[in-house]
Structures are given as C-alpha cells and as structure tokens.
Design goal:
The protein has 258 residues and is α/β, with parallel strands linked by helices. 25% of the residues lie in helices and 15% in strands.
Length: 258
C-alpha cells in the first residue's frame, strides 16, 4: 500500500506506517526544520511545503492519506477556539485533498480535545465525502510508553458505492481502547486514574519496554537551549510511531484478508 502524508511534522506517522509495511509516496510540511528532518530520513520522497497549494495535479494517487492536522485551536492547552480557528481550521484542506484524490483510506490524528471542539465537523466532512469512520483514543502508555499522551485516531474508509471494499461495512477494526470521560467532567487527558489496556502482548501500560529503550532524552540544559527549541517543539508535536504501527498493521491485515 502507498500513502501520502499531510502535516508530516518530523514523520512520526510516516515512520509507523512504513514499519507496518506501507510505502510513503509524498509528504507535505510547512516548517523548515521539520522538512530538514524529513529530507534526512526520506531523501527520495516527493515533498511539498504548503497544504493549501497541493491537489490532484501534483499529488500522486495513493491508497491512504494520513496526517495530524494542527491541534492548537482544539487543544486544552490552547485558546479553545475550536476547529474553525486559523490553525486547526486547516482540517478543511485535509478534507479537500481527500475529495481530490479519493483514497481508499483516510487516517487522521489529533489531541483528545478534538472530541469537544470539532469532532462532529470532522466526521460530517468524512461522511459527506463518502467515508465511514471508526475512532478511539489510544494513549502511548497503552503500548508501554512511560507517559500517557492521549490522542484521537480516526480511520475512515470509502463506502462501497465510492470505491471501498464491501467487507468494511461488516468488519471494523474495533475499539480496543476507548477513552472514558472523567467522573468530574474534567478533560479526558487530565483523568489520570484510569485503567489502561495493553494493546501489545507482553507490553504493560505505563511500564517502559524494549520498544522504548532506544528513545533519546530531550536535553534540558540552559546552555545552548535556543538551538534546541526547534527540536523540542517538533518532538512535542510529533506522534508516537509505535501506536501508528499497531494501527497500520491492522489495516494491512484487513487488506490482505480475502
């Protein structure tokens, strides 16, 4: 399967999907530092800067379009403007590109604040474009990371009348982890006393495993900090590739089944 990457950042989603067996056809990323990271790791991949300037004329047709559109306007750490804000409103470009390319799948990531600040808009746009969707909040801790990092993951697939595979109407990926609301109505990512579900055999939620021992630490020194800001911001915006790989392998398995 080939995929295209929108709002690529430093390639967390791309790395996870490649580990699952897919091939990256192109990337779209506006930040110069992030593009330098992408160039280092995907030197032969076609790359574009501005999501507002790409369409079916310059993007190769792919099986899946993936991306985590900007979260600043839907995040609890932001102003709470919602999905109509200047940054998170770029979801409209994601939706537009889906309409242009008509991939079999769309794979969308964002912070859990999206559930309260624009989730209906995302699902509505997907439905209008001819896609059914499944979703769930899977934290990095569910795959053994030593931190929570809740994220909403949406997998949309074209309905049969729009070129999709009929079996998806009866066979979904399921929701092995669905984020519950807190008893006190707090934002989901602040509800720390929840039971986490292990998604990988032998990997215990919240306990660092072999998957995580290779992780490099973020330098937190006063001396030279300005030179680390781009790196720190990029890491903060990035997704956890292990979560993407787990989802990607399930997509591949369903694709390969008769």
């Amino acid at each position: 399967m080939k995929f295209g990457s929108l709002f690529s950042g430093i390639g967390g989603i791309d790395l996870g999907l490649e580990r699952a067996g897919m091939e990256c056809a192109w990337q779209v990323e506006i930040d110069p530092f992030c593009r330098s990271v992408l160039q280092r790791h995907w030197p032969r991949t076609q790359r574009f800067e501005d999501v507002r300037q790409v369409n079916e004329g310059n993007l190769q047709k792919v099986d899946l379009v993936a991306g985590g559109f900007p979260c600043q306007d839907v995040s609890d750490a932001g102003w709470g403007v919602g999905i109509e804000g200047d940054r998170s409103g770029l979801w409209g470009e994601f939706s537009r590109i889906l309409g242009c390319l008509r991939p079999k799948y769309a794979f969308v990531e964002n912070v859990s604040g999206l559930l309260r600040r624009g989730f209906g808009r995302v699902l509505g746009d997907l439905a209008e474009a001819g896609y059914d969707a499944e979703w769930g909040c899977i934290p990095a801790a569910a795959l053994g990371a030593p931190h929570l990092r809740d994220r909403v993951w949406i997998l949309a697939y074209a309905r049969p009348e729009h070129g999709g595979t009929p079996r998806w109407a009866d066979q979904g990926l399921g929701r092995c982890y669905v984020l519950p609301e807190g008893d006190d109505g707090e934002a989901p990512e602040r509800c720390e006393h929840r039971e986490l579900v292990a998604l990988v055999p032998g990997v215990h939620p919240g306990v660092a495993s072999d998957w995580w021992r290779h992780q490099s630490s973020v330098g937190r020194t006063a001396n030279g900090l300005p030179g680390q800001l781009d790196r720190s911001m990029s890491l903060g915006n990035a997704v956890v590739p292990q979560v993407v790989e787990w989802i990607g392998r399930r997509i591949m398995k369903c694709e390969e089944s008769p």
